[in-house]
Amino acid sequence: xxxxxxxxxxxxxxxxxxxxxxxxxxxxxxxxxxxxxxxxxxxxxxxxxxxxxxxxxxxxxxxxxxxxxxxxxxxxxxxxxxxxxxxxxxxxxxxxxxxxxxxxxxxxxxxxxxxxxxxxxxxxxxxxxxxxxxxxxxxxxxxxxxxxxxxxxxxxxxxxxxxxxxxxxxxxxxxxxxxxxxxxxxxxxxxxxxxxxxxxxxxxxxxxxxx
Length: 211
Hints:
Elements: H1 4-7, H2 12-23, H3 28-33, H4 38-54, H5 68-71, H6 85-102, H7 117-126, H8 150-153, H9 155-158, H10 163-168, H11 171-175, H12 190-198
């Protein structure tokens, strides 16, 4: 952060450029590796807000001319183009999920990376799987049944699957003699029959799965 007297030598346009180029970039490495609590995100945005409107670490009341959520919108949507740190953190974290599913040759591909339920839900809701031989597509997580996932088709059934099995069971394994049914813990009902009707798809051994 610049000393207050230096910050006051800059007009709001200059301070906006400083926020977008410097203050928004400082936490990127941490956001890439960690999932910071919302309190940390708010504290970082508070510093950005204070510098932009008042040239110091904090600003409140009449100094804040525009709601920060609007400031963090892209220019075409009426904002000032300041990076939304919450969304940036989510995008950077799910980037690892994308790499782990699309490039298994990287050195870190075998790491046991931990992701929150929100991050995993965002990733799987944003991607679809073009089914090939079924060795890469996850039976319980990926959207491989006509562009939909098991969670979308049969949410009550999905809730009966242990988290570990959701991450390990591939489509190829699941469709072999209906192995997916062995993953179910707890009561089952009509949703199992509905899934069984939809999961009678044939895999293509000569083709790889594609996202």
